[in-house]
Amino acid sequence: MIIDSQGDLTLAVEQAMAGTPDGRLREIMGALVRHAHAFIREVRPSEEEFERGLDFLVGIGQATGETNNEVVLAADVLGVSTLVGLLNKPLDGVRTAPALLGPFWRKNAPECALGDSIVRCGTPGSRLEVRGQIRDLSGNPIAGARIDVWQASPVGLYENQDADQPAMNLRGLFTADASGHYHFETIRPAGYPVPTDGPVGDLLRAQLRHPYRPAHIHFMVTAPGHATLITQIFADDQERLDSDVTFGVLKPLVATFETTEDGHPALRCDFVLEPGETRIPKAPIP
Amino acid sequence: MIIDSQGDLTLAVEQAMAGTPDGRLREIMGALVRHAHAFIREVRPSEEEFERGLDFLVGIGQATGETNNEVVLAADVLGVSTLVGLLNKPLDGVRTAPALLGPFWRKNAPECALGDSIVRCGTPGSRLEVRGQIRDLSGNPIAGARIDVWQASPVGLYENQDADQPAMNLRGLFTADASGHYHFETIRPAGYPVPTDGPVGDLLRAQLRHPYRPAHIHFMVTAPGHATLITQIFADDQERLDSDVTFGVLKPLVATFETTEDGHPALRCDFVLEPGETRIPKAPIP
What we know:
The structure is a homodimer.
Chain A: H1 9-17, H2 23-43, H3 47-62, H4 70-77, H5 80-88, E1 127-136, E2 146-151, E3 171-175, E4 181-187, E5 192-193, H6 199-206, E6 212-213, E7 216-222, E8 229-235, E9 254-255, E10 257-259, E11 265-268, E12 271-273
């Protein structure tokens, strides 16, 4: 199409893409162009602003490497990653909501007995018990479910980021009892910042946003005949619970504290698995 | 905000960005998030589709180097670059519409007398005369305006891309006469493809789109007291005039053919300059 005014452009691009044989690609790109053009028409960027936007896109691509993905981080801090996750798995009040695996999971966490502590060599911190039950969609307990847990220390570092922690500190693999229950001892994790040395860090600073995720404990729960559940649990008394920089705090993933018989705090973390297959992810590059 | 459903997310992100001190950044990012979330809600990408989209963004950033900008190219082939240009300088029927400088302009084109040919050493091709007048917004001729022209050869290559062409072939710098008129001899340029060896080339192939820009001649027109005009002119009998892969064919930039007194085709290219300053761009990296 020969362009007569800015109003022609969206139709011109849609017509150019109309021959896309893959119907889903045609649908996605058509919607992308309509929404992108609507955005441009709303904000009317100057040429300089447009150039800065393009430079930002170049920057996040080029800052992405084997161990960090600045494009994913940009999607995270704009709420897009959580939005995609929730559209694919809406919170339904029954199934436990999934969360991202994150970059810190390791294979072969130490096998533990119920009640063991995952604190190795006495990392100082505030004592915490975690306990709960694994159930299926009908509410039946899943005996022998496997619970792989990992968390940051009270200074906000995972053991594989921190020379001061022993190997496999704050990691453990538990097996639920015949009633689907599990429990273990740990210390309170701390929140930690997303990487701030790239273009996304610059954006957060320009927006006066803090870069922190609130403290959480990661879980991967598996059982034969059930889909692997990867999630993370937040404690309801934590700082910044309502300002996670990645918008990852879903209400059903906020656990509440109970008090144990001997007066210590215990975090109650129940999990509901769907039918499906056990799929263990590849370990992320540390 | 603790997220209770996908419907919470847009407001959550807007609230997180509400403290941005720069009002324009706040406005742009707020609109970006609203439009991006609306796009995601419309197409509901699966996790795999979302990952492919993020990988595409990483890919165009990483394919960008000193001599090619795949992010700009993506904006071009989605009509976004032309849209931004037209919003900043709407076609008003008076001022000549600007166009991109492009990567092939060179400083210090050979100084030519009116009527000279810019074909050096007999590059074969179909003879073409180009002529026109430079005027101001009131229609008064601008005597002595300088017209810098450059174009691709009939095989679609600029001299600095093509070992078979002599240096500065198909480039020239002319000075309008006292009535603002200029004319020169050349040969018909050919269209040429945008780079197709990166992720944008993959996208064009998946959309069954050709990668060509229709043939055009570039002009940079300067005169004291007037803003530098950078534009490009298309001839109205050219192939793919209505399917420029970058949506750059603006109706007022399509010139028509006249016939010279001796029966040769002549392309009529008049230019209207606005008041302003002469600004010569930095030469792009060849």
